[in-house]
């Protein structure tokens, strides 16, 4: 019996590793976590398939199929007075009016995957991108720029219902200048392992350790778009219940209170994160969490508001912008068998180093436990 358990643990450990050992493809042919094939567009079209910057032919960019007005952009290229800079390597693509890029990905049927890509808006207004893996699709607004570089990383998740998933990134915009569309660089994938509640925590993924792929060399975190544009959350178990995104941050580039990942509530009351948890009516619960700052020059009096059903708690945090956190807890009596746990940032804050990027308090290590009611003496 014990041997059986050990064997299945070993099997499972090895299957997980085989999925992530190699970039590109796992040992059994399904996609591995990381960049997609030519995901950073460093592999260029042949010169004969280019007319200036415009890509000619649908199969000209290795690994991709392109449609419509697609440009292949070299870092440092100028457009008007704008210098185009590329985060991953030296090349990116630009999607003009109604243009798209596609790639077929071998996936494991039934699994959830998250796509992370870098995008930058150029000259159009209200830029958006429609990301599709049939039958799911989501329109991600890329109008608000959260990083001072102009590039942001976006996450979007899907459930694989076939063995081959076709990812389509499409610019639905129609501008007077067909070249005025978003730049795309660095497209990656990550398999998601939906976490379960444990007897130590009824909140799932409370430390935000399970989430989208984070590029090792782009220090801007990953934006998790609002749920209205996303059926499956790239941050398993959590819903982004707001008009604006929340930012997923990693300990390699930010201060993170616990573990390797956390979220930064970057858009004031417009960026809230929630989860619905099972509770027992009449029982007392303790919701505990960490509030801090990401060591990203987000200076000021930050406030996180926590909600558990109808109970709320405001947690002030004085940030010097150099990293740090405190713990807080909200005790409440469950009035329903399902309780909505939600967090938002009361204020809008700008980074003190560039005065242009939105920032906010960091949330991490969210735990919910029922409190043992002390026995009567
Ligand atoms: C590939 O390996 C994973 C993990 O071992 C497994 O779940 C999946 O079914 C395999 N896919 C194929 C096509 O064999
Ligand atoms: C893995 O990535 C490296 C560096 O980006 C590249 O040289 C190599 O060809 C990739 N391997 C596969 C199997 O894609
Ligand atoms: C580029 O040209 C080479 C040599 O003609 C050819 O083998 C290759 O398939 C071409 N690549 C693309 C993406 O068309
Ligand atoms: C996004 O693209 C998909 C697939 O092409 C399409 O079905 C969907 O209607 C598009 N959504 C919007 C809002 O354009
Ligand atoms: C904040 O970042 C600075 C510069 O990268 C680093 O030296 C410092 O140790 C970080 N502080 C914390 C608390 O992580
Ligand atoms: C939860 O409460 C609702 C309404 O009060 C009820 O319909 C439902 O059966 C309950 N679910 C469980 C699992 O107790």
From TrEMBL:
Q: What InterPro entries does this protein's entry cite?
A: DGR2-like_dom, Galactose-bd-like_sf, Pectin_Meth_Modulator
Question: Could you tell me which residue ranges the DUF642 domain spans?
Answer: 34-190, 203-368
Gene Ontology, cellular component aspect: plant-type cell wall
| Location in the cell | Secreted, Cell wall
Q: Which keywords accompany this UniProt record?
A: Cell wall, Glycoprotein, Secreted, Signal
Pfam assignment, any one: DUF642
Source organism superkingdom: Eukaryota
Q: Which parts of the chain are coiled coil?
A: none
- According to the record, the signal peptide region is 1-20
Protein name in UniProt = DUF642 domain-containing protein
Lineage of the source organism?
Eukaryota, Viridiplantae, Streptophyta, Embryophyta, Tracheophyta
